[in-house]
From TrEMBL:
Record-annotated Histidine kinase domain positions: 556-749
EC numbers: 2.7.13.3
Species the sequence originates in: Mucilaginibacter celer
Protein name: histidine kinase
Pfam family, one: HisKA_2
Classification via PANTHER family: ETHYLENE RESPONSE SENSOR PROTEIN (PTHR41523:SF8), TWO-COMPONENT SYSTEM SENSOR PROTEIN (PTHR41523)
Signal sequence, start to end: 1-21
Amino acid sequence: MKKIYLLQLFLLLAISASAQSSSLEHLPIPVLKQKLAESKNDTSTIQLQIALGRVIIHQSGSGNAQADSAFNLSVQAEKLSRKVGYNDGIIDAMLLSALCYNKKGNKAKGFQEAQQTLAFSNRVKNNRGVAESYIVMGHHYDVYTHDGLQTRMLYNNKAITIFRKEHAMFRLGSLLKDEAELLFLAGQKTDAVKLLFEALNIDKSIGNKQIQSVYWLIGRTSRDMGDFTNALKYILLAVKTANEVKDTTLLACSIHYTTAAIYSNLRDYDRAIPNALLALKIARRYNSPEYIGTVTLLLASVYTRANRLDQALVLLEELKKYFIGEPEDLTLMESIFSNLIYAKQFKKAKPYAEKIQLALTKISPDDYSQFELSYSSLAKYYLGINQPEAAKIYNDLDTKIVYASKLPIAIINAERTHYRIDSINGNFKSAIVHYLNAQRLRDSVDNVTKAYQISLLSIENETEKKNNDLNKLKKQAEIKDTKLKQTQLIQKIAITGSVFLLIITALVYSRYRLKQRSNILLTKQKSEIDRQNVSLQQLVGEKDGLLYEKDLLLKEVNHRVKNNLQIVMSLLESQSGYMQNKKAQEAILESQSRVQAIALIHDTLYHTDQIAEIALGPYIADLLDSLNNSINIGRDKILIRYEVDDMMLDVSQAIPVGLILNESVTNALKYAFPAGDQGEITVLVKQSDGEMEMLISDNGVGLPADFDLFKTDSLGLTLIKGLTSQLRGAFDITYHAGVTISIKFPVISTIIASQKSV
């Protein structure tokens, strides 16, 4: 646990945040690891390794294990950078190694590594590397000593000069925040704010939305100067910006902590408590003992001042697991002690007074901050229990420290305590002196605050003026640029127009010469075309004649085939007259109907202009009519219905379709309705997406229960299966409540009229 929470903890956060060398370092560690796993072995891999290493060593609570992990990443990055010849990667990897040495406490080795990086950067003439080396070399020096602080600032200023020259705006803005922190430590707080406003302008100019840290630093500095109005203004801007960029890091913890502290200074405890609770929630999520301790001490103080002492004591009791060791135990005891004194719980405070007095004998004499807090609280305690002599002893010790440390607010409190002690003892002359000292110092502090407010207002106005001037210059530059572009455009148009005019003139002349040559060529070509047209017309005439003869021959063939089939039908009919066997007569009749199905196609082709396709609707109508007049004659109870899409079907498919339909309807007429039963036969023919489906169904007696489609030796079914195979289709038969035969096959060529006939 750090000894001085309120100063060191948040200072280190700001410095580590401002030391970011790239925007990648804003990303969380899991995201960086995922991107690194997905990257190839190129410069992007190196940049991710460097960013991940820097984030790891700068995270809260990091120690030797994290430093070792970051060091391994630096070694990998340097090796890959040297392999691909990437100087920026070599520099960043060497500097990451230096930071790792610093993190592990080997600052001499870290400084040496940074010096080697500086030498390498100078050798390869990499100014960015030179600047980054100066920054890391500055980390060798302790900012809590005067000489160390001045040396760190010297190195930072060298880097700032280079970044300004190189126009490295992201790094310049980042380093200006770092330098502002150092100026804050040096007591040059107005100068620090100037740098912060410059950093703010730079970040805005480059579109960096992560500016909450700048607002926070301005707000924190204003609070330290006693300017709570401006402190609240800028800290609320920090909160707003952090919410906009969804910042949930420890920086957000610092922002909400400072917000709570400012509200507490303004005695607005109702607003201070939610901000302190939010800061504590973030600190606990990161499991950072330093942040948890610092925020808890503030929240307990606010609870006490809001008359919620019990909650304050519960919080401080929970803090014991984080405060281990004599300085930390004393810090916790002093916090509990001071809260009890504020609540005037002097009996409960008594044991802590005794423990604090004992603990003060065990801590380092150099821990002035802890001595000052403890002496001040003990003086107030003894005043509270009406022991002015004991109070005077501790207040004198406190006064000696605060005057030596030049802490104005603490000096005022010590003088006021002197005033109260002297008043109780009746030493009014001394009391007045101490009162006047406190009042004079209070006026001095107020004057410093007013001077700071004036300086801040001046800086804001100056910044606004600079921004306005920059905007004017930008607008003027834009106007000049627009005019220049217009002038250049006019010049280009004039030059282009002249060039086009020359080109057009050349083209016109060229076209004229070309047209002359083309006319001569066209005349020759026209003569040749005319000659070829005469020959072509002769060929077309001969072709038309041949096609006409072909059509006549096909019609004659169809006519003769039909006549021959009619002869065959007549012969079959004559033969049936001489047959005494009924089955033989039926077989001849079936053959006759099959021939009739084929003959109808040839008759249709003969009487139409089509020689290769047949209209399926009329053909099926004629075929069913023929079957009705032959096989169904005298059986008026059986009704044959049909519904056929109007379409043309190739002859090669029409014949198998006709035969399948003939076989199916014939079988239905013969076997579906025994003993003259009433019934209906339905024929449906549909076409969709290049496929035709034919359904022939009846509502007759159906097939026997033991019927097996694959074992039957029926000639009709054998023909249907064979013809379906010829059509490359699928055949199916169902026999529930009658029989339904389904035939599906792809259509070769059709013309669909989308009309139905029944």
